[in-house]
Amino acid sequence: MTGGRSRSPYLSILLILLVLLAPLALSVLPGVGADLLADKHAKAGVDCAGCHKKVPPEGPPSPTVCYGCHGDISKVAERTQKLPHNPHDSHRPDFDCDACHHLHKPSEDRCTPCHQFGVRVP
Ligand code: HEC
Ligand code: HEC
Ligand code: HEC
Ligand code: HEC
After folding, report:
1. d(Cα 29, Cα 45) in Å, to the nearest integer?
2. Residues 15, 48: Cα–Cα separation, whole Å
3. Contact residues of ligand 3, CB 6 A cut-off
4. Under 8 Å between Cβ of 103 and 38
5. In tens digits, what is the pLDDT along the chain, a chain of 122 residues?
6. 37-122 adopts what CATH topology?
7. How far is 78 from 106, CA to CA, in rounded Å?
8. Do the Cβ atoms of 77 and 86 come closer than 8 Å?
9. Is-contact 122 40, C-beta < 8 A?
10. Under DSSP, is residue 112 helix (H, G, I), strand (E, B) or coil?
11. Which residue of 46, 67, 121 sits with most ligand 2 atoms within 8 Å of its CB, as the best mutation to test the pocket?
């Protein structure tokens, strides 16, 4: 048995481990590989204190914190009025911003499963 033959299984295992662990490493490193709304805000110059009164935060911010910068739902609706089904102007005014837009986990489309509009919630 040659040295090359006995080393190759270890190399394969190492490569498999690297492939398996890469997504884990990406999810642990803050901001790396993430596309969460809080990261987008950070890139737009809005830091933690832009939404949270206290840092480190003692809880989620008031739902009205979004209005301060974006205006209320009717104001935001102007930005999305070209969509066939405006997510900000519907028969569900009871949905507050963070019903759909999550800041620290992936956002969700609350119009599904009743409708399939095929939109991506940022
Ligand atoms: C654009 C507004 C916004 C920004 C910026 C933001 N957050 Fe948040 N944060 C929220 C909202 C809204 C929630 C409620 C959960 C959600 O929607 O993800 C929350 C929840 C949290 C919570 C959980 C609170 C609890 O007890 O439930 C922590 C901790 C937190 N944020 C920390 C941070 C830190 C640290 C930063 C800066 C890196 C930050 N947040 C930036 C809006 C924001
Ligand atoms: C301190 C000001 C500020 C606050 C508070 C704030 N935002 Fe923003 N937000 C911004 C800026 C600046 C941008 C980037 C420019 C833009 O799209 O308006 C942005 C962008 C966004 C976008 C678009 C992201 C994209 O990919 O197009 C969404 C959605 C959003 N904010 C939702 C929220 C929600 C929900 C809250 C409340 C939890 C919130 N914002 C609070 C300033 C703010
Ligand atoms: C029913 C789910 C839902 C709710 C509730 C909701 N949004 Fe949105 N929002 C969306 C979707 C979907 C989009 C993406 C629209 C598109 O594809 O252009 C969006 C886009 C946005 C954008 C980016 C608009 C642009 O110019 O591209 C902002 C800012 C925003 N939302 C803020 C808010 C704020 C502030 C609230 C609360 C007042 C809110 N949204 C409530 C689903 C929602
Ligand atoms: C719990 C289920 C449910 C949810 C959630 C829901 N809808 Fe509806 N929606 C309905 C029903 C039921 C109708 C009436 C059925 C019909 O006549 O098409 C309807 C009708 C509509 C219509 C008019 C009919 C059409 O297709 O043009 C629009 C537009 C609409 N919904 C948009 C939305 C939007 C945007 C959201 C998310 C903010 C939403 N809906 C969330 C159940 C729902």
Report:
1. 20
2. 38
3. 66, 70, 72-73, 76, 79-80, 83, 87-88, 95, 97, 99-101, 109-111, 119, 121-122
4. yes
5. 444 455 677 777 777 766 666 655 545 444 444 689 999 999 999 999 999 999 999 999 998 999 999 999 999 999 999 999 999 999 999 999 999 999 999 999 999 989 999 999 99
6. Flavocytochrome C3; Chain A, domain 2 (1.10.1130)
7. 24
8. yes
9. yes
10. coil
11. 46
**C-alpha of residue 59 to centroid of ligand 3, in Å:** 23
CA 120 to mean position of chain CA atoms: 11
Does this model's pTM top 0.90? My answer is no
In this structure, what token pair is assigned to residue 39?
């990261």
